[in-house]
Every structure is written in structure tokens, then in C-alpha cells.
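$ fold --in a.seq
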Amino acid sequence: MSTDKTEARLRVEDLLREYAACIDDGRYEEWPAMFTEECRYLIIPKESHERGYVSGFYLCESRGMLSDRILCLRETAIYESQQYRHIVGGTRVLEHTDSGCRAETPFAVIRTTQDGAMALFAAGKYVDEVIFEGERALFREKLVLTDSTRIDILIAAPL
């Protein structure tokens, strides 16, 4: 099946919409299934990434590590209950082939705490390497490049 640039963008956007809804709805156990078995997920300030740093706020290098992170979030992490809401911008395909693509997409995440206070939690861009397996699209690499070098609290959930 041949994949043109528009189709690649639409497939990535569908994957990103499901990704954001999964996190926003608290369906964290479903989140690792959006990645290939061997994958890389990194949340890092854009500035640090541009300097060549390889670790940031959050690093997982396999689907198993993603699942472990969710287990930790559910069973051992102690944090104030909060709600995330992702606002995802338009995707730009940087490179594409029939089997996948590299794309970038701006994002913002709003956090609502138990008392109803809302604040911009994080903003930046996703830089994704996405693999197309038949009808499925999966992240092989997801870089979450934050615009700020500061996050005001521990990042418990994925961005």
C-alpha cells in the first residue's frame, strides 16, 4: 500500500488524537500499545535536546519500560489528583516513505487540579517517528520537546 504525504499526515494526526485522548481520559494502561516494542520516549527541554543531551525529565526505551512507568504511576506514585487536557496543533510531515514517517506537531497541556485551578503545564512540540504496520500507525520514537527548561512539579503522567 502506497502512502503519500497527505495520507501519512492524516495517519499521524489520528494516532496523536488517540494518544492525547488516552492520556486526558486517564487510560494510561492503553498508552504503551501506541508504541513499537522497541521504542524511545523522551520528554526533554528543546534547548537541552539541541545541545545534544540524551536524557531529560522522562525517558523510556521500550514498550516494557512504558508499561513499568504506568505501573509506578498507578501503584507507587503519590501526587495530587489532576486532570490533563492536550491541545494539539497541525502536524507537519518532515519525511515519509510507504512504511512510516517523521513528523512534528505543536502541543500545549493544561493541568486542572482538584480545587479547579487551571494552568498551562507544558508547551512545545512532538517530534515523532511513526511506523505504518498495515492499518496501524505506531510510534517508534516520540520526542516531547518542551519550550521551557522548568516543570513546576514532578511529571507523573506522560505528556
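$ fold --in b.seq
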Amino acid sequence: MATETTIDIDRSIGDFSYPEQHTFDAGIGLTRDTVNYISDVKNDPDWVREFRLKALEVFESKPLPTHWASKDLEAIDFQKIRYYLANGQRATRSWDEVPEDVKRTFERLGIPEQERKFLAGVEAQFDSEAVYSNIKKAVGEQGVIFVGSTEGLKEHPEIFRKWFGKVIPTGDNKFSALNSAVFSGGSFIYVPPGVKVKHPLQAYFRINAENFGQFERTLIIADEGSEVMYMEGCTAPKFETATLHSAVVELVAMKGAKIQYITVQNWSANVFNLVTKRGLAHEEAEIKWIDCNIGSRLTMKYPGVVMKGRKARGEVISIALAGDGQHQDTGAKMVHAADETTSNIISKSISIGKGRATYRGLVHVPKHLKNCKNNTECDALLINSTSRTDTYPAITVRGTGNAVQHEASVSQVSAEQIFYMMQRGLTEGQAMSLSVNGFVNDLVRQFPMEYSVELKRLIDLEMEGSVG
């Protein structure tokens, strides 16, 4: 496997934008007219339009969360956001047919080059819609479907509609309702029974416009005994005004299936990243989230797994890095709903300057279940005396015969350790970076090779400005 990264997440790589040229623009603000405009442009079936309008009512009826990060959320003015921007073209299967201005963006980010190297399929979304979607011939011949969500709901309704909105209901939270009202873009993947996709499928989500909201909707279904790895990357240029990213991701792993979902986000510091992600694991199925949260003004993201079938397994492995003026409010949700289910949560956070990292987790085991197991580990590293970390684990285990263990630690970079390394010829920044990489090294090893090298590089970049 190539050692080059699939997504170069150096912040300077993503901090650029091109002039806007959009054929379709829903305008500023959110009303029924906005939702109907999106449905008209996308030529939605009647059931989708009805779904959207009901979701808008739910969104308007729900207050903003008040028990955490409420002050940060108050900075979002939903009537100053643009909810749909697109050029109207169908996602092309040929890179040569992608519009030149959009092609320049993704070529600068290295997408086509990495596709040629080792990916089984790629989707590239620019603002509201996918502009490119392709799957390798051999994978397509196995019956694997990998298309945008719009194409999926129209061309594969018998599979799509069965699971759409079932793992994450519209009313789950205010931001899942917002996504349900204005969703556009995202991926739809179906893997037939017994098919093991050998190479990763990847999507890349790019926000180019100012005052914009990106609301992709992803649905992945792995049928019995199948396996798939999906990777997503996200960037946006830095603007002075707030940008909103509010995605919904639903995973369904049927009996004996395995889904691995890997995210590396490198949003600029003006992005509010408010995402709902959940998987449903049937008997002996496995869902694993690998999550790296870097950048953004505020991230609120808690990937979850509902273990519905006997011997199902759920896992969340996450790294969060909060720099100056950033709040990474991340965690995991594990709901045990069958006997002999197993969940594992490993979370590591780094807070720099006045950055704040928060772990917020939920583990639930009802009293009628037997032989369920959970392991939760939350470790935080503070770089400066002004940085902050908080841990809010909510673990509810009832009945007998179940096992749960929880471990949490907070540590600060040792001045003695830094001094020792500087005596060996390292600069203070290099010494700090080495300490941080050592802190996350056991988790980084679980990332694909294509990411682990870049994660180390990004940490080096972040630590350069943390000393002094």
C-alpha cells in the first residue's frame, strides 16, 4: 500500500477559495420557500419533499441545546446562512468532465492522484452537490453501489428508503432536523452479501463559499457477511464569517458485516461542525468509527453504535486537537440492545493555548441483558496552563452479569521532559511535538498508513505555534 496520504491535511493546503459561479442559489435564510426551492432544483420525489417540510417544522420547534456549548452556538444566525449552492450538473464519472474551476480545487487537494493510487472509489462534493463520483470497474462488477445520496434515493429507492432516517430519526436533535430539511450531497453505499471491498471508498467534502452551510447525508448499508472501509475528509477556506457544517451519517451493518468509517476533518477556525453519526449493528456485526477532529470553531460530534443483534460489536477511536479559540466537544454513544454485545471507546484530546477539549460519552446497558462488556478510556493532555479539558461520562449499567470499566486521565506536558529533549539538540517546538505524538501514538497506529503520517505532520504544524 502506498505511504502517501489520501488527503493532505496541512491547514495551508485547504485555505484557499475561488470566485463563486453558481447556477442555483437558494438565497440567504431558512423558510418553507428555501426547502421547496431545494426540492424543486433536485426534482425530489413527493415523499422526500414531505420529509423535508416536516423536518423544518421539527427544527423550528426545537431550542438550541442549553446544557453545553450554548454560548458558542448563540453565534450562529440561521437566517444569515446560505443553504444551497450548486451548478446543476449531475456528478460525472469522468474527471475530465468536471468543471474547470472545481477541478482546480480538487487537483490542488490531490484527490484524482490518490484515486489512481489505491482507492476503490471516490466522491467529491463541492458546496451542496457531488461533482464527481466514480467506482472502479472490478468493485462495481461485484454489485457494490457507490453514488451520491440524490442519485441513491432516485435510482435505488427499494434499498435507500428502507433505511433512510431509520437509524437517526429527524427529531433526534435540532441539527439532525436541520439536515433532514435541507440535506444535499453525501454518499450512498450498498455492499451485497458476502462482498469484501478490498480497498477504501472515499468522499471529500469541500466548502468554498462564504456564509454557507453544508448538509451532506450519508447512508452506508453492508449486507450479511460483507465488509467495507469508508474514509472522508473535509476542508474549508478561512473566512471572517461563520460557516456551518451539519451532516448526518447512518450506518447499517447486517448479520456478520463489518463497517469501518474514518474521518479526518481539518476545518478552518470559522466553521461550526455539528454532526450526528450513528450505526446499527445486527447479530455478530461490527461497526468501528475512527475519528480525528482538528480545526473548527466548535465541533459537537458523538459517533454512536446501537448493538441490536447478539454478539454485535461497536468501537469509537478518536483524537481531538483544540487550538486557541477552539472547542472540541466530542465523544461517543454506545447502546447495548442485545446479549453478549461488546463496545470499546478510546478518546484522546490535546488542548493548546486557550483551546478547550470536552469528552462527552454515553454507555447504556439495560437490566435484562447478559454478558455485555464495555471499556471506556479518556485521556487528555494540556499543553499550556490556560488550556482546558472536561470529561462527562454517563455510564448506565443495570442487571447482573455485565462488565464495564472506565479510565480517565489528565496530564500536562512535563517541563523537565521538554528541558531534557532540548538538551539533546531539539528545539522547544520539536520537543513539544515529540511529546504530543508520543501521547497519541498508540491510537495513530490504528489509522490507515495513508493518514498516520499526515496526522503526525499536522501535529508538528500545530505545535510550532504553541510555545513561547
